[in-house]
Amino acid sequence: MRIAFDGGSFQQGILGGIHSVAVNFLNACRRLDPTFDVILVLDPRLGPVNPIAMAQLSWEPQTISAGVGPAYQSETRAPVGSSDPGVRLFVDGKLTDPGSNGDSVTYQGPRPEREFVILSRTAMPRDINGSSDLRKLGIAITGIVATDSSKRRSIAFDDRRLHRGYHAAEATFRWTEGSAFVPVEFFADFEDQIRVEITYNKLPIYPLSPGRLSESLESFRRELDALKLEHTTAELGARLKADGCEAYFTNHFIPAKMPQLKRFAWAYDLIPVLFPQFFHPDARQNFDANIEVFRAADRVYTISNSTLVDLAETLNLDRERLRYAGIAADVNIGPRKPDEVLKVLKKFDLQKSEYIIMVSTVEPRKNHLRLLQAYEMLRQRLPKCPKLVMVGQMGWDFQETLNFRDSRGLTADTLMLSNLTVDDLSCLYTGALFSVYPSVYEGFGLPILESMECGTPVLTSNVSSMAEIAADAALTVDPYSAEDISKGMHSLCTDAAMRANLIAKGDRRRQDYTWEKTAEIVLSDMRGLLA
Question: What was the pLDDT predicted at 75?
């Protein structure tokens, strides 16, 4: 069997859960059927292939590149906008319009005591010049200089303390994300009145709200885009069929509809539909294209029964075209030896069984804010409260979470980590007292299974797929109640028998989810549909 497979996850800089599914699923299919092969379909606008991602496959499949991702059609459009980045400063609760000479702004007033934030318009280079750069860029800081009547101090653009709201420093500047914080500790020893000059570079244009003319032009462009996409997709489908592919399998990033081939798709969740407030417009646009693929697919494979029900009831899809396949944890995640665990814990100044772990991107849906509220209550109830270790990339709209953590004095006991290796992550799971995952909604909830794989008891939410995956092998709580989350954490902190019981049940539950089971379900079903 040879199919074309959505290779968009192999073009991502951050390899998340969708990529883990792609790699583990494809490798399992290859183990079960050595004749199974894929051509990975790439979209050049997603950037180059990530060699680390490709190296995770057990063989080297052929790749083919074409601009068939519907959500990436508008990257070369010249937006209607302004060359003015609209720099403003938010200082101690007050928004100021600083004086500007085109490449610098100046604040002059009381010494900042609580916050100093650089605000500006933002744009994506992709939308301006058609590049593959998908970052949201504000202004490029080249330097910050603070002065009072007796001293002058420069703050370098690459100072490591500049991290909230900034992209990584480049050779001579550092881009903001449109809302960049300057730590007020920089100004602590200055006089009551202070002058702060910020020098910067800027993008050539920042999109503004469209008017009637731009809306008409946009409508015309959309029609041209649709025709171009239809032609490109048909051409690619013909090439894939000539190369022996019988189907195209969508995996979220490149939801293309190829009439010459059978159409299969992974469905992870309906979160952008059910909780649109948690997503930015570009993510919702890509998901809309996925929904179109679901409606046209010969088969949609769901990662949980919860997702299957959502597809049938929310999108009114025919259940006959839906098939539960399930997924599993990454095969490389599992318990580690005591000496390995202690070595990693020492690196992060942690002690075995003296911390609670949460693994998740920091974004509103994952519920970090309520977790911190619950943790604050737990500290009041437990004299010797375990630390809280939160592992994950900064996603979006995370500022409220960080502000709460800092303002409540939780910083010393809450460790935030990211970019960990699989080995380090497995060691942190293994050494934790328990794992907590109080997300508001999930299509599956891989950290639940990852914890069970490492022999770690789990506390998770009693909603959506998390209740399904946990079954009776985890303690479940109401994710909308910080009090309920805190009570659950208290129970697991103080009840060793409960922890031992959940570890035993978790060990049995994890065996219900293997990549071999998933691959066998999908391969068998695809063979039937392709016969």
Answer: 44
